[in-house]
Write a structure and sequence with these properties.
Blueprint: H1 3-47, H2 67-75, E1 79-86, E2 90-91, E3 94-95, E4 99-107, E5 113-116, H3 118-121, E6 126-130, E7 136-145, E8 150-154, E9 164-165, E10 176-181, E11 190-204, E12 210-217, E13 229-231, E14 236-244, E15 258-262, H4 263-276, E16 281-283, E17 286-291, H5 293-299, E18 306-312, H6 317-320, E19 328-332, E20 335-336, H7 343-347, E21 355-362, E22 365-372, E23 374-376
Parallel strand pairs: 9-14
Antiparallel strand pairs: 1-4, 1-6, 2-3, 4-5, 5-8, 6-7, 7-8, 10-11, 10-13, 11-12, 12-15, 13-14, 14-15, 16-23, 17-18, 18-19, 19-20, 19-21, 21-22
């Protein structure tokens, strides 16, 4: 081999060697740099907090007011809890203790007059009210009307608010309503919401008369709500809550069947009670037993519907007209007594001092008598 070829071969080996060494150094440096950066990154992650926006919790303080809350706040201060004491009775084992009953009511006058139900205060010897702020005051019973289940109370204490009375004659099914009262006597100023389910409902009391023209609602009403207001979304009282139906004679169980006396009826009764101390009803002067087809069949009576006279009060309009015990009244004026027209409800369509024709059956014979109706304060 010539010297020239030997020189070229040596030169190529030298270049290849330096290239390999340079690549190794560069690769090692790169690996070292990557390792070093990774180590620093790990150390930073462990020793330094991650930078970024601070984590915050936002509390929304938006004041949400709805028609329901506004109406409840408007009427709520005028609503009271009514507490009555029924005296104990003498029994075979001795006297029983007094009994406490409770219901609800609502201020309707700055003079301290309160609307509630007759059955809330019926038979009580003492009555007090508890305001929405917990203050307790004594109250007196101005007057009651059993047949509309309305009573008027009065207190000489402070009147925190007076409810506005609305127009119950313009209610429509589906309209939102609010019931406010003290269910069970403990949960004062409870607010429940529902709708007007129907108007013009009739409930048989089982005492010979019906409560008519009631407002039906599915707003929750419980024992203790009686006498409290049923309110529309304008914050106006359109009814006085009076009763609930939870079961029927067939054993069916129902929910959401609450009833209220229209405020138009309650107001008419209350105005007369405040003026006279009682609500004036026409008076015939008899005690009676309602007749239905079942009773007529059992006792072989000559009328399917009517009022069997069990007693005639001395000197009463009935006595003066010649009515007697055992007569069966079947018609008052032009209205026949039947399933939808009970004796008392028909009688109450007339006014004291009005002369009417009473049709009755005596000894199987239909007869008539002219009666001048008196006035009753019970």
């Amino acid at each position: 081999m010539s010297a020239k070829r030997i020189f070229y071969a040596f030169f190529l080996l030298l270049v290849a060697g330096f290239s390999a060494l340079g690549g190794a150094v560069a690769g090692g440096a790169a690996v070292y740099q990557v390792a070093r950066q990774g180590s620093l990154g790990n150390n930073q992650s462990a020793a330094m907090p991650v930078s970024g926006p601070a984590q915050t919790i936002t509390i929304n303080n938006t004041d949400i007011q709805t028609s329901v809350t506004t109406a409840a706040q408007k009427v709520g201060p005028a609503v009271v809890t009514v507490v009555g004491t029924i005296p104990g009775q003498m029994t075979f084992f001795g006297p029983t203790g007094d009994q406490t009953v409770s219901g609800s009511g609502v201020f309707v006058s700055a003079d301290g007059y309160i609307l509630t139900n007759n059955h809330v205060v019926d038979g009580t010897k003492e009555v007090s009210i508890i305001l929405s702020d917990g203050t307790q005051q004594t109250a007196s019973i101005v007057g009651t009307d059993q047949y509309s289940d309305i009573a008027v109370l009065k207190t000489d204490g402070k009147v925190p608010a007076v409810a506005v009375l609305g127009n119950s004659d313009k209610l429509d099914p589906g309209e939102t309503v609010i019931a406010i009262g003290s269910p069970l006597g403990n949960f004062k100023n409870t607010v429940t919401v529902g709708v007007v389910s129907a108007t013009g409902r009739v409930i048989d009391t089982g005492n010979g008369y019906q409560i008519e023209n009631l407002i039906q609602t599915d707003a929750a009403i419980n024992h203790g709500n009686s006498g409290g207001p049923l309110v529309n979304l304008a914050g106006e009282v359109i009814g006085i809550n009076t009763l609930i139906v939870r079961n029927t004679g067939s054993g069916d169980v129902a929910e959401g069947l609450g009833f209220a006396v229209p405020v138009s009826t309650a107001q008419a009764v209350a105005v007369q009670i405040i003026q006279k101390g009682y609500f004036s009803r026409p008076y015939l002067g008899i005690s009676f037993q309602p007749i239905s087809p079942e009773i007529a069949l059992r006792y072989n009576l000559p009328a399917q519907w009517g009022a069997y006279i069990t007693k005639v009060a001395a000197g009463s309009p009935a006595s003066q007209a010649g009515l007697r015990q055992g007569d069966i009244i079947v018609k008052l004026g032009e209205v026949e007594i039947d399933e939808t027209n009970s004796y008392l409800n028909t009688l109450f369509t007339f006014t004291p001092g009005q002369q009417i024709t009473v049709e009755f059956i005596r000894n199987g014979q239909t007869q008539q008598a002219q009666v001048m109706l008196g006035e009753s304060n019970r």
